[in-house]
Design brief:
Structural class: alpha+beta
Distance between the termini: 30 Å
Function: Assembles around the rod to form the L-ring and probably protects the motor/basal body from shearing forces during rotation.
Helix content: 10-25%
Subunit structure: The basal body constitutes a major portion of the flagellar organelle and consists of four rings (L,P,S, and M) mounted on a central rod.
Order of helices and strands: EEEHEEHEEEEEEEEHEEHEEEEEEEHHEE
Keywords: Bacterial flagellum, Cell projection, Cilium, Flagellum, Periplasm, Signal
Largest sheet: 6 strands, antiparallel, barrel
InterPro entries: Flag_FlgI
Strand order of the largest sheet: 5-6-7-12-9-8
Family: Belongs to the FlgI family.
Length: about 375
């Protein structure tokens, strides 16, 4: 039996944003910001999936499934008086969807179906007409159609094989929009652009770039950075709002991001930003290996001694320490930092411990994010 200290069984991946000195790169406004009035709206509904091949809810464990089935049949004019049903081809599900911005009645969107009871699989089922409501309680879409499930389950008497999730699926283009949002795009007096990665430098740069465009096109300044996330654009009098947004979203802006090092110890992923700096610091890394060997021996009693055969444990423990080299590490840019980490000769699983130690010593000039 062998184990290592520190016990980091991690495969590391370095995602390098830039191989040399940090340089800001230009991006379109549509790629770094979104329109506040152009966001999605979430919809939710409760429905039934029918036509399952014996993998539906057990009506005894999920009484709400039977209640929903009886209510549906009564609405269709079918009497449900009588004994309790034992069908296993119906499952109660929650249906969710995202209503895209500026969606018009009659257009279709995808719907996601998730089992609510003890159904084992939704494969082969059909979602019965289900109304989807928004946060205001109004019905905005109606979903119906065949459920597509990517996972599968195969079960025998002594073994079971399952891949993926069989209790959740999608209904492609299964929801039809019945009601549009009350607000219209051209009813707004201004445009509010929200940065996906809030940053004051990027927000100010976006406002300056939009104002440079508006000075040429309209002879006035129309943009103002409200904070690190929002940039407000006033509509000029003669401008068409749709054309204005189309022109603005294609403008190129120099983006800026804070220096961060993101570490995920579960997957062993390390992401080092381009602006990460390391002050001069001495680093030593060694791995302690402890090997435990168990070689039990069988001890036989002497002849005619009426003794018993016994097992005598015997344990050999060997401890060894590798590495321990002290090296000076300094990273004025990303290339030098990565080269310095590689020059220590440490295995990838030790870089996480080194970065945490450098941060504790105050030599890592970046935010360390642990996931």
């Amino acid at each position: 039996m062998t184990f290592r200290l520190p016990s980091l069984a991690i495969v590391m991946a370095l995602v390098l944003a830039c191989a040399g000195p940090a340089l800001s790169q230009g991006s379109r406004i549509k790629d770094i910001a979104s329109l506040q009035s152009g966001r999605d709206n979430q919809l939710i509904g409760y429905g039934l999936v029918v036509g399952l091949q014996g993998t539906g809810d057990s009506l005894r464990s999920s009484p709400f499934t039977e209640q929903s089935m009886r209510a549906m049949l009564q609405n269709l004019g079918i009497s449900t008086q009588g004994g309790q049903s034992a069908a296993k081809n119906v499952a109660a599900v929650m249906v969710t969807a995202n209503l895209p911005p500026f969606a018009s009645p009659g257009s279709r969107i995808d719907a996601t179906v998730s089992s609510l009871g003890d159904s084992t699989s939704l494969r082969g089922g059909t979602l019965v007409m289900t109304s989807l409501s928004g946060a205001d309680g109004q019905i905005y879409a109606v979903a119906q159609g065949s459920v597509v499930v990517s996972g599968f389950t195969a079960q025998g008497q002594a073994a079971t094989v399952q891949e993926g999730v069989t209790t959740s699926g999608r209904v492609p283009n299964g929801a039809i929009i019945e009601r549009e949002l009350p607000s219209k795009f051209k009813d707004t007096a201004n445009l509010v652009l929200q940065l996906r990665n809030p940053d004051f430098s990027t927000a100010l740069g976006m406002a300056k770039r939009i104002n440079a465009y508006s000075q040429t096109a309209f002879g006035t300044r129309i943009a103002e950075a409200r904070d690190s996330q929002e940039v407000v654009v006033q509509k000029p009098g003669p401008a068409d709002l749709t054309q204005l947004m189309a022109d603005i979203e294609n403008l190129i802006v120099e983006t800026d991001t804070p220096a961060k090092v993101v570490i995920n110890e579960r997957t062993g992923t390390i992401v080092i930003g381009a602006d990460v700096r390391v002050s001069k610091v001495a680093v030593s890394y060694g791995t302690l290996t402890v090997q435990v060997n168990e070689t039990p021996q069988v001890v036989q009693p002497q002849a005619f001694s009426n003794g018993r055969t016994a097992v005598q444990p015997q344990t050999d423990i060997v401890a060894s320490k590798d590495g321990g080299t002290v090296a000076t590490l300094e990273g004025p840019d990303l290339r030098t930092l990565v080269s310095g980490l590689n020059s220590i000769g440490v295995k990838p699983d030790g870089i996480i411990a080194i970065l945490q130690g450098i941060k504790s010593a105050g030599a890592l000039q970046a935010e360390l994010v642990l996931q």
